[in-house]
Amino acid sequence: MDITAGAPGIIREKTQRFNFIDQFRGLVVILMLLDHSSYFLNAAWQHIDPFDPLFGNWGQFIMRYVSYLCAPGFLMMNGAMVWWAYSRRTAKGISDWNARWHLIKRGLFLVLLQLTWVNSSWGGFSEFKPQYFGIIGCIGISMILLTLFIDTKWQVRLGIGLAIYLIHPFLLKIPYDSGNVWLRDLMQTFIDSGHFNKYPVLPWLAMSALGSVMAEGWLKVWSSDKEKIKYSLIIGVGAIALATIIRMARGFGNIFPFSNLGSYSFFMDQKYPPSLYHSLWFFGCVVLVISAIIAINKKAPKLLIALDIVGIVPLFFYCVHIALLGIFSKRIGLFYHQGTVLETLLGFVIMFLIMLPLTKWFGGVKRRSKNFLIRMI
What we know:
Elements: H1 19-41, H2 58-65, H3 70-91, H4 96-121, H5 135-146, H6 154-171, H7 181-190, H8 201-221, H9 225-249, H10 264-267, H11 276-299, H12 305-312, H13 314-331, H14 341-368, H15 372-376
Helix pairs in contact: 1-3, 1-11, 1-12, 1-13, 1-14, 3-4, 3-5, 3-8, 4-5, 4-13, 5-8, 6-8, 9-11, 12-14, 13-14
């Protein structure tokens, strides 16, 4: 979402954007580029199961683990911007339905983009694959569902998000026949993960709802950067502490076992679908990273210039970098599943140097354009 407005100390000239939101989104898609570079170039993915990843060294672990921030980050920022866009439009006198419809159209566009461009781009457009779902489609549906209760008080949205988290582990116990395509697709769209969809809507809708709650603090209630940093630190540390307690209890809210605190296995609880521990841990991480970005903006904003460029049009960056990797690595066969950590990092740097000027160019195009599709990207 690009519909934002200014607040003290963080207004981006006439475009009125929250720059720490843009910068965080920029960080997220850059981490996605790192993860996707690993997927296309790293030989480890010949034998690693993404549903149950095991890593033999810290290099592979860190390269994979940092990308775990991406899905929670995108869903939280999407929820934050849904709340802000709705609040801003209704404050201007736009009708309740029109404010919601604007967001619903955006959500529908994301679902369509998932089924067309995104799915096919993974294979370098060698074939059309509309029969799969994914993170962009999940964001779209979550966005649509969030509009149903976006006008409620933050306490209600918080309660809905936490209730979903508490109920979701029980829903995962529902048995279903994976051979029944309709039942499989329904379960994997909303509750479970599988080859049809790794990102079930319910737990990620909860993350989006929590993002909308945080938005009231970041974008409205906490007027100074000092307040934003202070309360973000308190909430982030609290969420991570709660997640740690849940993990150490080795019961409800966990899916994978772990050997001991600090081991690979302690951190690598299930992402597809996310366990309660995983969701709370990365909610806390997102909040802490946001507070760090706000702090860096106060002291050394030039360090975040690249994040600014990418974060203004993160969807463009996401769609184009996967397409380029799909074409050159998987379709043409350049180092597809052949490298190690070093080759992955080199590929990441090369792709980033290609994507940065492309993203800056498209950011200018989008800023000047009134075309519906360009404005959606």
